[in-house]
Every structure is written in structure tokens, then in C-alpha cells.
Amino acid sequence: MIISTKTKLTGLLGYPLGHSMSPVMQNAAFEYCSMNRIYIPVEVKPENLETVVRGISKMNFDGFNVTIPHKIEIMKYLDETDEYARCIGAVNTVKIKDGRLKGYNTDGIGFLRSFEENTGDRIEGKSVFVLGSGGASRAVSMTLALNKAKKMYICNRTFDKASSLADDIKRQTGIRCEAVSFDPEEIKKALQDTDVLINTTSVGMSPNMEESPLDKSLLDKRLTVCDIVYNPRKTRLLKDAEEKGCRIVEGLPMLVYQGAEAFEVWTDVKAPADVMFEAVEDF
Ligand code: ATR
User: Fold this and answer.
1) Using one digit for the tens of pLDDT, what is the confidence trace for 63-74?
2) Is 137 in the pocket of ligand 1 (CB under 6 A)?
3) I want to staple 252 with a disulfide (CB 3.0 to 4.6 A). Which of 145, 176, 219, 230 is the partner?
4) Residue 229: pLDDT band by 50, 70, 90 thresholds?
5) CA 254 to centroid of ligand 1, rounded, Å
6) Of 91, 157, 187, 211, best ligand 1 pocket probe by most atoms within 8 Å of the beta carbon
7) 71 labelled catalytic
8) What are the residue ranges spanned by the domains of the chain?
9) Residue 96 CA, ligand 1 centroid: distance in Å
10) Per-residue pLDDT tens over the stretch 122-149
């Protein structure tokens, strides 16, 4: 591709960015669709976020992704925020149109699309148990509640954070939502009423690949078990779940679909998800 003044720029703002797979994934998609666009990672320290955002909104950028540590702070500099991102309280994708910045959050939708495509099932009417209550959990849990999960359980090592997220979900969506303490008996009880179990904690991520956030004895074959950790592709939790006869959903498709959703926000063109998947698989 020849880069010219007509080339549209899309960025990734975060700090640090060393590990990100987004540039390889988005550039593969732009190239496949013969778009005159490039996706460039821009390391931005927190104290420079406002200056950088004001600057790129005056350049030939028409959008960008936002990652750690800017997903909440960025909201201060936007003209508009869509409903999902507002409920989640964080933005990972921004579209720039006529100098106006609109924020979206595609993390939860990425998970939902991965769940639906991998299981052929819907989340509507399902009882969901989410492990963790950090940023990733907020995006996933709120999105599932907005998409009419029947009931949600939020379980976290630090119980106060689970309580606060559960209250927020109830208030914003009207869905029944309970906080569960990190106690095997409490977890066991809630899992008896669960269809879909999702790990949003970092437990099991490389290099701690033998760790699982949940003891294998708590798993039952009725459960669909999902992990948002994608390195390794099949975590200890997913291996245990498979051995118990559960249906499993890996984390890598969520990464791809959150990127595919962002691509669609910027371009209004259906994202070539299979091309994006291949790009990250080879990475
Ligand atoms: P992210 O944006 O990836 O969600 P985060 O906001 O830092 O990251 O949240 C990390 C989540 O993983 C939290 O729910 C955290 O639990 P605490 O709130 O108790 O810290 C959870 N977590 C991280 N390490 C954990 C561990 N070893 N055991 C259990 N939970 C853990």
C-alpha cells in the first residue's frame, strides 16, 4: 500500500503497548478489504492523554482504540458516548466524525459474539456466573445483562468489588444480580443455578498456566465454561472443564471480535473476522 495524504489513520492509545495484537489484526483486515488505512500504536502516558486526543482529532485520524490505562479517563474528552459504554463506564473504541468524538465499548459485545458463534446458543434467558469484577468483568457482565441474561452472579476475591458491580448491574439493567464471596460453598450453591461460567480474572494466564481460578471439583458437565484469557489458548480452567464434559469457549475469539466490532464502528463495513483471526493466530 502506498501511504499518502489520503491514507486514513486509526490508532491505539495506551501505555505501555508492547504486547498488543491489535495492530497486526487491524492492518490485516484493512489490507484484505483494500482500504487506504493504517492502524498505528501510539504509546501515550496518562499525563499526555488530553493533548494527544485533541491533536489527533485535528489530523487525518478517523478513530482509535483505547487501552490500559486510559479506558475511563478518555471519557472526559469525548463529545458523546453510546449506551453500552455509558453503562459499562469505560470506552475502548472512539470514532471521529466531523471533528466530534464518539465513544464505544466493544469488549462485552466481543465476548457475546464469541459465545454465540462458538456455541450456536443465545445468552438471553441464561443464568450467568462471572468470576472477577475488574474492568473486563464490568464490560462482559454489563453487556450480558443488557442482552437479557436471566440472572447474574458476580464472584470476586475482594467481595466489596463484587457487591458494587452487582449493585450497578441491577440499577442499570433491572436484571437480578447477586454478589458471591470467594468461598467454595457459596460458589457451589450459585453454580447449581448457573448455565454459563465465565472467568474474567487473569488467573491461568502465561506464565502461570497451571493455575485455575476455580477448583475442578466445582465444575459440572451442565455448564458452558468460558475463559477470556487467551494466552494460553486453552487454560487450566478450560482443560478441567473439558475433562468434566463441559462445553468450553476460549478467549481468543473475544479478542478478535472486539476488534472486528471496532473495525465496523470506524468503517461501516463488515469486518473480515476470519482474516483477523488468522493474523492473531500466526502472531
Ligand atoms: P481487568 O481490566 O483485566 O479486568 P483488573 O481491573 O485489574 O483487570 O481486574 C482483575 C480481576 O482479577 C479482579 O477481579 C481481581 O480480583 P480482586 O478485585 O480481588 O483484586 C481478579 N484477580 C486477579 N488475580 C487474582 C487471583 N490470584 N485470584 C483471584 N482473583 C484474582
Assistant:
1) 999 999 999 999
2) yes
3) 230
4) very high
5) 18
6) 157
7) yes
8) 8-105+254-281, 108-250
9) 32
10) 999 999 999 999 999 999 999 999 999 9
208 lines ligand 1 (CB under 6 A): no
What's the pTM?
A: 0.95
**Which segments of the chain does DSSP mark as H helices, in order?**
22-32, 49-56, 83-88, 107-119, 135-146, 159-173, 184-191, 236-243, 252-267, 273-281
- Of 71, 102, 126, 151, which residue is the catalytic one? 71
The answer to whether the 8-105+254-281 and 108-250 domains have the same CATH topology is: yes
Residue 134 CB–ligand 1 contact under 6 Å: yes
Decide whether any atom of ligand 1 lies within 6 Å of the 110 Cβ: no
Angle between helix 22-32 and helix 252-267 axes, rounded to 10 deg: 50
CB 253 within 8 A of CB 117: yes
Band (pLDDT 50/70/90 cuts) for residue 22 is very high
- Predicted pLDDT at 248: 98
CATH number for domain 108-250, candidates 3.30.750.24, 3.40.50.720, 3.30.70.1340, 3.30.360.10: 3.40.50.720
Q: What is the pLDDT of residues 144-187, one digit of tens each?
A: 999 999 999 999 999 999 999 999 999 999 999 999 999 999 99
The listed CATH number (2.40.30.10, 3.40.50.10860, 3.30.420.10, 2.40.40.20) that belongs to domain 8-105+254-281:
3.40.50.10860
270 in Cβ contact with 276 (< 8 Å): no
